[in-house]
Specification:
alpha+beta; globular; Arc Repressor Mutant, subunit A; Jelly Rolls; 11 strands; 5-stranded mixed β-sheet
Length: 352
């Protein structure tokens, strides 16, 4: 009878792990979807420009991903401490952390760089600017679409830190990704004329192109690379991450997550820590704090209610954890965000 019970338990365990493996195999990208959902993408701000040589734009969107699409001609991306990067027709380049850079006609352009951000801040559908007084659409002109994404910077921080400084997807060459050709054709068509629902459509296109870039990059990350994104290609870790992001308020323990990942407690904890750079419960706590910070900034919920929503039965314990992460109490952090929000809006209006 004892042997039979052991066999039954073994079969159940194998069946459970097989099911989880199947879910993880399907869910690697599903886990990425959960992480992207947490970023709360809210469309893009964009501007279309026709640039006759010599020309130069500068752009910086700290914490927010920005991108450039070359729909005709070529350009050079210039960053401090990095080699010039040639961009050609059909190319898409994304700077995930919005680092300061120049995009111009040649590495040593004779043009004086102009700030591109104020043109984006106008947020006018179909806005089209010229980089110089000439501004003529000559065969040497570069047709450029520049954007920056809008999302929750705090929620995006772990993902953005794991991405390279530049994601360059080539539109020409042996095997450009099909999604790029289709997406850029659609984008170029939309910006050429005003149509109903244009801004909503452009927002979705911009979000999708950025997500496609991330997905393509994740597929190139190898196990053992030391990159946080490698966890998304590991069935066990992907399963654990999906559970944390899907149900962050649950009282997860390391044994619980290890069991769901079909690993021993020690093997799971070691693999998680080595791949993501922090222990499972530290990752869970920091994720909860980011969720709480978003609620404090964007809702009128009481601190106690926010604590409950992110898995804390005690408001005092939540406040201590939040202060360890952000340096101030939840109430003070909320007050600071309320002061900063009008200032940010005023700065945007001034830039426009």
């Amino acid at each position: 009878m004892l042997a039979w019970r052991r066999i039954t338990l073994t079969i159940r365990t194998i069946a459970q792990c097989a099911t989880l493996a199947s879910v993880a195999s399907y869910g690697n990208m599903d886990t990425l979807s959960l992480i992207l959902d947490d970023m709360h993408f809210d469309g893009v701000v964009f501007v279309s420009s026709v640039n006759a040589p010599p020309w130069s734009w500068r752009l910086a969107t700290p914490g927010l991903a920005c991108a450039h699409v070359i729909t005709q001609g070529q350009a050079w991306l210039m960053r401090d401490g990095a080699d010039p990067l040639l961009l050609e027709t059909g190319d898409l380049v994304v700077l995930p952390n919005g680092a300061p850079h120049h995009i111009q006609d040649r590495p040593h352009s004779a043009a004086i760089a102009q700030d591109l951000l104020p043109h984006m801040a106008q947020d006018v559908v179909g806005a089209r600017v010229n980089s110089s007084d000439a501004g003529s659409d000559t065969p040497q002109a570069c047709h450029l679409i520049s954007t920056h994404a809008r999302f929750d910077v705090h929620m995006a921080a772990p993902l953005v830190r794991a991405l390279p400084a530049v994601l360059h997807v080539r539109g020409l060459g042996e095997a450009p990704p099909p999604w790029l050709a289709v997406g850029l054709q659609f984008l170029a068509l939309e910006v050429t004329q005003r149509r109903p629902a244009q801004q909503a459509i452009l927002n979705r296109i911009g979000d999708i192109l950025f997500m496609e870039c991330i997905r393509d990059h994740v597929e190139t990350v190898t196990e053992g690379s030391g990159n946080w994104l490698a966890a998304l290609k590991d069935r066990a870790l992907s399963t654990a991450l999906a559970l944390i992001h899907r149900d962050p308020q649950h009282n997860w323990t390391v044994p619980d997550l290890a069991r769901e990942a079909c690993l021993s407690r020690s093997a799971f904890a070691d693999r998680f820590t080595q791949t993501l750079g922090e222990p499972p419960l530290t990752y869970l706590t920091r994720h909860r704090m980011r969720l709480a910070a978003r609620q404090l900034a964007h809702s009128a919920l009481s601190v106690g209610k926010v604590a409950d929503q992110v898995g804390y039965a005690s408001e005092a314990a939540f406040s201590q954890a939040f202060k360890r992460e952000y340096g101030v109490s939840p109430s003070v952090w909320r007050q600071q965000r309320q002061v900063e929000a009008p200032e940010a809006s005023a700065s945007t209006r001034a830039a426009a």
